[in-house]
């Protein structure tokens, strides 16, 4: 497989994931209504997402992408300090 073929497969997988996600959003019931999907269908959708994710990872590995590392546009990670807020005790 060359990079062009991998890229095409990645586009297909991305579109499948996006479309499947939109279908799930469209059929998700609001406000306590029963779900129109059966438990088997819901599990099948979860399995499809898992397969798509696994294949996307395989393709990324073939192309040498490191998915664990975030990308920063300027090349440096943001400098942030974490501040813990402690709620004062009532006395």
Polypeptide structure, described:
- The chain has a domain at 1-18 and 37-66.
- The chain has helices at residues 3-27, 39-63.
- The termini are far apart.
- The radius of gyration is 21 Å and the shape is flat.
- Helix 1 packs antiparallel against helix 2 (39-63).
- The protein is mostly helical and 91 residues long.
| Annotation, overall tally of beta strands | 0
Roughly how many Å apart are the termini?
69 Å
Mean model confidence by pLDDT: 82
What does the main sheet amount to?
none
Summarize the structure.
With 91 residues, the chain is mainly alpha-helical. 55% of the residues lie in helices and 0% in strands.
Describe the structure using short key phrases.
single chain; 91 residues; mainly alpha; 2 helices; 55% helix
Layout: helices, strands, pairs:
Elements lengths: L2 H25 L11 H25 L28
Helix pairs in contact: 1-2
């Amino acid at each position: 497989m060359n990079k062009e073929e991998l890229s095409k497969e990645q586009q297909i997988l991305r579109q499948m994931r996006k479309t499947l996600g939109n279908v799930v959003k469209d059929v998700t019931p609001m406000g306590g209504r029963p779900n129109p999907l059966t438990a088997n269908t819901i599990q099948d959708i979860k399995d499809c997402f898992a397969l798509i994710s696994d294949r996307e990872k395989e393709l990324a590995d073939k192309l040498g992408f490191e998915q664990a590392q975030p990308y920063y546009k300027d090349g440096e990670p943001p400098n942030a300090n974490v501040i813990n807020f402690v709620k004062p005790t009532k006395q």
